[in-house]
Write a structure and sequence with these properties.
The complex is a heterodimer of chains A (about 350) and B (about 375). Chain A is an alpha/beta fold. Helix content of chain A is about 25%, strand content about 20%. The longest helix of chain B has about 35 residues. Classes of the chains: A alpha/beta (about 350), B mainly alpha (about 375). The complex binds adenosine-5'-triphosphate (ATP), iron/sulfur cluster and magnesium ion.
Chain lengths: ~350, ~375
C-alpha cells in the first residue's frame, strides 16, 4: 500500500478554524433484520452506512453521490439524529450529537436542517403552507403572534420564489417544483447554518431541476449556508459542490475537490459514474465511452471480506478480494484527494480509454 | 400608480400581501371530500335523516307530544289512529295554562334546566294541545309516539357518548402505541389482545346486575351516579379496542412518511407529532370507524335493555320499547305497533349510520372507491 491512511479530518487540513462545522467519524448505521422461515430464521444487518467519515466547513458544499440504496439518505438522517447510529461520531461545531435525546437535540435543530427527497411525501397534506413553514417558527420563537409568524412565512416564501399570497393554500395545490420550494422555505425558517439536501431535485422535471439548484446556490450566497448535497449522479452536483464524496455500499470510496473528482477520478466506480455523464462539448461527447458495470447490484446485507466493489470492478485483481482497501490519500495527486482502491495511484487510464 | 407602488415601504407592502393572502384560501382535503360527499345522494340522505333525527331528539320537550310515562289503564293497546290529529288534553296544564308542578313531574320525571325551559316554551306555544296517540298505546295506555321520541334521546345519546369515549381512548392509545413502536408497542398491543379475550358481555351483565342491587343503587344515586352514566363508561371502555388497533395500524404506515421525519427535523415534540401531524391524517378513518361504532353501541344498549339490564323504567330507550313490544307477543295476538316503531327506528338509524360511513370513506379516500 502506498498511500497514507487518511486522517479523520481529511479535507479540512488547510482550514485554520478551530472546529469544522460538521465532522463525521467512522459513522455506521446497521439495521437489524429477520427473515427466512420460522424454523430456519435468518438474522443479520443491513449495513446501510458502514464507516463514513467526512468534514464540512462553514459555507462549504459537499456532494454525496452514489447509486440508489448506497446509504446517502441514511447518512444524512444519522447526522440529524433521526436514526440512531450503530457506532461512530457526529460532531457539530465540535459538540457530539450522537446519543442526544429529543430535548437536548432541540437547539441543534435550529442549526441543521434537511430538504427531503420526495416533495410530495415531505409536506403534511392536512396543513396549509403557512402552517408548514410556520411550524419551526412557533417551536423556536414561541412567543411571536400568529400574524408576525405569517408575515415571516411570507418573507420566506418570497425568498424561495413562491407567491406569498398562497399562504393559506394546501400542498396538493402546488406543483412538484413549488412543493420543493416550500420544503426549502421550511428548512430556512430557523436560519440554519447547514442544510442536508437529500436529492432535492431528483423527483423533479429536468426543466425545473436547474431552477431549484440555482435557487439553492443563490440562497447559499445570500445566507452563507453550508450544504451536504446528495445526488445519485455526478451531473447534478458538478456546479454546486466544492467537494464531492462518492459513496458505494455504505462507504465513501473517493473523496476530493470537485475538480479532482471530475478531472482526475481514481476509483473505478467514480470513473464508471463519470462515464455516464454526458459531455457538453459535442466532440468530447462523441469520444465518450460508457463503462458499463457488470455483475449484480450488491446488497448491503452481505459482508464482503475484500473490496465491496470487487464483483463489478473492471480492473479487479486477486488482492482485492482478500482485504478491504482503506480510504487513502493519493500521494501525487492534489492534497485532500483520497480513494479506497489498491490501484488508485496508477489508475488514471480507465477514464481516458 | 407606479410611483405609489415604488413609494410603498417594505412593511406596508408586506401588510398588503398579508391582507391579500387572506383572500386566497386553499381547498383543504376535507373541503374537497365534502364536495365529493355532496354528490353521493344516498349518503346525503342518510346524513339528513340522522341530523333530522338528532334535532328532533334534542327538541323533543318542545314538541306537542303526550307524556311518555303517564299511565292511562283505560286506554291500553289502542291501535294506530290519526283522527283527531290534535286534542287539548295535556294533563300537566290547567285550563288557565298554568303548570301543575306535581303533574309535570308525573308526566316527564325530573327535568334538567334545559328541558324544563323547553317544556315551558312548549306550554307557551301550544298550550294544552298535544298530538293524539298516532302510533297507538302500550299495555299501560302510554303514548307510543311520545315514548319513541323520548327513547330516541336516550338511545342516540348512548351511541354518541359511548362512541366518543371509545374514540378518545382508542385514538390516543393506538396512536401512542404505533408511534412509539418497539417494545412499548408490543406491550400495549398484548394488553389489547388480553382484553379482547375477556367475555365483556358477561362482565357487563354481571356488573350491572350487581349495581342494580337496591342498596348499591341507592348509594350510587346519592352520589349522583346514574346507571346510564356507568353504562356510557363501561360500553365506551369496551369498544375502544378495535379503534385502537385500527388507528395503530394506520400510524405504523403513516409514521414512515417523510413529513413525519420532517416534523422531527424541525423539532416537534412527540405529543405534537402525534396530535398535530398524525391524528389529523387519521381523521378520515376515525370518522368512518366512529360511524360503525355508534350503531354497535346502540345495538348493545338495546340488547341490554332487552334483557332488562339497560335503561330502567320509567326511562325509555328503543331497546326497552322493543322489549316491551316483544313481551306483548302472545298466542292471542301481536300488538304489532309496539314492535314496528322501535324496531324501525333502530334499524333505520343503524342503516343510515352504516351508509354514512361508506359514503364518508368513499369521499375521504377516493382511491378506494373503484377497487
Ligand atoms: N429503516 C430502515 N430499516 C431497514 N433498512 C433500511 C432502513 N432505511 C434504509 N434501509 C436500507 O438501507 C440502505 C440504504 O438506504 P438509503 O435510503 O440511505 O439509500 P439512498 O442512498 O438514500 O438511496 P436512494 O437514492 O434510493 O434514496 C437500503 O438498502 C435500505 O433498504
Ligand atoms: S480495490 Fe480492487 S476491486 Fe476494489 S476498486 Fe480497486 S481495483 Fe477494483
Ligand atoms: Mg435517499
Amino acid at each position: 500500500m502506498s498511500g497514507t491512511v487518511a486522517s479523520p479530518n481529511l479535507g479540512s487540513s488547510s482550514s485554520t478554524t478551530a472546529a469544522p462545522l460538521l465532522e463525521v467519524r467512522d459513522l455506521k448505521v446497521h439495521f437489524p433484520f429477520k427473515r427466512g422461515t420460522f424454523l430456519k430464521p435468518e438474522r443479520g444487518f443491513v449495513r446501510a452506512v458502514d464507516g463514513v467519515s467526512f468534514t464540512l466547513r462553514e459555507g462549504e458544499t459537499l456532494g454525496l453521490v452514489g447509486e440508489s440504496g448506497c446509504g446517502k439518505s441514511t447518512t444524512a438522517r444519522a447526522c440529524l439524529n433521526l436514526v440512531k447510529p450503530t457506532s461512530g461520531e457526529v460532531l457539530f461545531q465540535g459538540r457530539p450529537i450522537h446519543g442526544l435525546g429529543d430535548r437536548e437535540m432541540l437547539p441543534l435543530r435550529s442549526e441543521m436542517q434537511m430538504i427531503f427527497q420526495d416533495p410530495f411525501a415531505s409536506l403534511n397534506p392536512r396543513m396549509t403552507v403557512g402552517k408548514i413553514v410556520g411550524e419551526p417558527l412557533s417551536i423556536f420563537f414561541g412567543g411571536s403572534s400568529r400574524r408576525d409568524r405569517e408575515l415571516e412565512v411570507m418573507r420566506l416564501l418570497e425568498l424561495v420564489g413562491l407567491n406569498p399570497r398562497f399562504l393559506n393554500r394546501y400542498p396538493h395545490e402546488f406543483s412538484g417544483g413549488q412543493r420543493q420550494r416550500i420544503g426549502i422555505a421550511r428548512a430556512l425558517a430557523v436560519r440554519p447554518k447547514l442544510i442536508f439536501c437529500d436529492e432535492p431535485v431528483s423527483a423533479l422535471d429536468v426543466s425545473i431541476q436547474a431552477q431549484v439548484v440555482n435557487l439553492l446556490e443563490d440562497l447559499q450566497q445570500k445566507l452563507g449556508l453550508a450544504y451536504v448535497f446528495i445526488a445519485h449522479d455526478l451531473a447534478v452536483v458538478r456546479h454546486i459542490c466544492d467537494r464531492v464524496g462518492v459513496m458505494y455500499l455504505g462507504r465513501i470510496v473517493e473523496l476530493g475537490t470537485a475538480e479532482d473528482i471530475y478531472g482526475d477520478p481514481r476509483h473505478p466506480y467514480t470513473q464508471a459514474l463519470l462515464s455516464a455523464v454526458p459531455e457538453a462539448d459535442p466532440a468530447a461527447e462523441r469520444r465518450r465511452k460508457r463503462i458499463v458495470l457488470k455483475g449484480e447490484v450488491p446488497s448491503p446485507d452481505k459482508q464482503y471480506p475484500g473490496c465491496p466493489f470487487a464483483d463489478r470492478c473492471p480492473i479487479v485483481q486477486d488482492v482485492c478480494k482478500q482485504s478491504p482497501p482503506p480510504l487513502v490519500q493519493i500521494e501525487n495527486a492534489a492534497a485532500r484527494h483520497a480513494a479506497a482502491c489498491f490501484f488508485a495511484r496508477d489508475n488514471k487510464t480507465v477514464r481516458l480509454l | 400608480m407606479t410611483t405609489a407602488v415604488i413609494d410603498e415601504t417594505e412593511a406596508a407592502r408586506r401588510e398588503r400581501l398579508w391582507e391579500e393572502s387572506r383572500r386566497v384560501q386553499g381547498v383543504s382535503l376535507g373541503q374537497d371530500a365534502w364536495r365529493r360527499f355532496r354528490r353521493d345522494r344516498v349518503s346525503m340522505l342518510s346524513l339528513v335523516f340522522l341530523l333530522g333525527m338528532g334535532i328532533l331528539a334534542i327538541a323533543t320537550p318542545l314538541l306537542p307530544l303526550q307524556s311518555p310515562r303517564l299511565v292511562k289503564v283505560d286506554q291500553k293497546f289502542q291501535p294506530m289512529k290519526f283522527r283527531p290529529l290534535f286534542a287539548p288534553t295535556a294533563a300537566w296544564l290547567d285550563d288557565a295554562g298554568k303548570i301543575n308542578e306535581a303533574k309535570l313531574d308525573e308526566c316527564f320525571g325530573e327535568l334538567n334546566v334545559v328541558n324544563d325551559s323547553l317544556i315551558k316554551l312548549r306550554a307557551a306555544i301550544f298550550g294544552r294541545w298535544e298530538v293524539t296517540s298516532w302510533l297507538g298505546t302500550d299495555h299501560l295506555g302510554r303514548d307510543q309516539l311520545a315514548r319513541l321520541f323520548w327513547g330516541a334521546r336516550v338511545s342516540l345519546l348512548v351511541g354518541v357518548v359511548a362512541g366518543l369515549v371509545s374514540l378518545v381512548i382508542g385514538v390516543s392509545y393506538g396512536a401512542t402505541s404505533g408511534y412509539i413502536g418497539g417494545w412499548v408497542d408490543s406491550a400495549m398491543m398484548r394488553v389489547i389482545d388480553v382484553m379482547y379475550s375477556v367475555p365483556f358481555i358477561f362482565i357487563v351483565i354481571f356488573l350491572i346486575t350487581v349495581l342494580s342491587e337496591e342498596s348499591i343503587k341507592k348509594w350510587l344515586l346519592e352520589h349522583g351516579i346514574d346507571r346510564i352514566v356507568i353504562f356510557y363508561v363501561v360500553v365506551g371502555a369496551i369498544y375502544w379496542l378495535t379503534m385502537a388497533r385500527v388507528v395503530r395500524g394506520q400510524v405504523l404506515s403513516l409514521k414512515q412518511q417523510q413529513f413525519i421525519e420532517a416534523a422531527r427535523t424541525v423539532g416537534c415534540s412527540r405529543a405534537r407529532i402525534i396530535f398535530v401531524h398524525l391524528v389529523p391524517n387519521l381523521l378520515s378513518i376515525i370518522i368512518v370507524y366512529l360511524t360503525l361504532t355508534i350503531p354497535r353501541v346502540m345495538l348493545f344498549e338495546s340488547f341490554l335493555s332487552f334483557l332488562g339490564l339497560g335503561v330502567e323504567p320509567p326511562d325509555v330507550s328503543w331497546g326497552l320499547l322493543a322489549n316491551e313490544g316483544a313481551k306483548n307477543i302472545t298466542p292471542i295476538g301481536i300488538v304489532w305497533w309496539l314492535i314496528v316503531g322501535p324496531g324501525l327506528a333502530l334499524g333505520l338509524t343503524c342503516a343510515a349510520l352504516n351508509r354514512l360511513g361508506d359514503g364518508l370513506r368513499d369521499a375521504l379516500d377516493p382511491r378506494l372507491k373503484n377497487r
